[in-house]
Amino acid sequence: MTEQTDTQDSSPPKAGAIIVPVTLFEQNCTIIWDEPTKKAVVIDPGGDVPKILDAIKQTGVTVEKIWLTHGHIDHVGGAAELREALRVPIEGPHVADKFLLDNVVASGARFGMTGVRDFAPDRWLDEGDTVSIGDLSFDILHCPGHSPGSVAFFNKALRFAHVGDVLFAGSVGRTDLPGGSHATLINSIKTKLLPLGDDVGFICGHGAGSSIGQERMTNPFITGEM
Fold first, then answer.
1. DSSP 151-199
2. Largest Cα span, the chain
3. Binning pLDDT at 50, 70 and 90, where does residue 4 land?
4. Given the DSSP bridges, would you call strands 2-4 and 15-22 parallel, antiparallel or unpaired?
5. Radius of gyration over alpha carbons of the chain, in Å?
6. Which of 8, 12, 105, 172 matches a 20 to 30 Å C-alpha distance to 98?
7. How do residues 78-120 score in pLDDT, each as one tens digit?
8. Which pLDDT band holds residue 215 (cuts at 50, 70, 90)?
């Protein structure tokens, strides 16, 4: 697990985060919390729920919500089980990914993932919505392309985003799955993520995080299509 804190000069909220890699996909299940209250959210519990619960216990936070960036099995496989274990609501993704959440069991079977469940979130998210945990508030950006209902979470005060599988360090999300579109994905990145500012750091769905500025300058999928 990798710990990360985000700071800026003008007295930003105090927050903490750990990444819990889960399943054979090494998906970055992320726990983010408001430091003063220790209220926390789990983003994209793709599986290995006992591992996630152990990380929550070790961190000493109180999880009050589950947020989903999109509906692919490696990001939602453990969501229903974790919701039941913690008795907290699931928020996200965008309703355009309903067809994926309606078919979690079938999708899991293709990858040998058992014990997963079809489910619906307690709240769908859309462009312009906000979600919060403790004193931390995140704006919702609808970023289709990797999946039709992908969303990103952005905290302006922390200059931090969680972008799911929309953008990676040196790459972008795959677009060969149902509902994917490379042109739509690049448009989402250029119109939703790049305008956030070069100083914004982000956690993504797999691998190391990066910053908007770093990707604007060096990511071949972006520099080649500007």
1. EEEEETTTTEEE-TTSEETTEE----STT--HHHHHHHIIIIIGGG-TT
2. 49
3. very low
4. antiparallel
5. 16
6. 172
7. 999 999 999 999 999 999 999 999 999 999 999 889 899 999 9
8. very high
Question: Cα dist. 169→103, 131, 185, 195 in Å?
Answer: 29, 25, 15, 17
pLDDT above 90 coverage of the chain, percent: 90
Find where tokens 């090494």 sit. Answer: 26
Question: Model confidence at 1, in pLDDT bands (50, 70, 90)?
Answer: very low
Could you tell me the CA-to-CA distances from 170 to 51, 65, 155, 204, 207 in Å, in that order? 28, 30, 22, 11, 10
- d(Cα 49, Cα 8) in Å, to the nearest integer? 33
Residue keyed to tokens 């990103």:
152
Q: What is the mean pLDDT of residues 148-163?
A: 98
Give the other-Cβ count within 10 Å of 217's Cβ. Answer: 11
The CA distance from 52 to 31, in Å, is: 9
Q: What tokens appear for 149 in the block? A: 């209902």
Q: H-helix or E-strand containing 220?
A: helix 220-223
In whole angstroms, what is the distance from residue 24 CA to residue 71 CA? Answer: 17
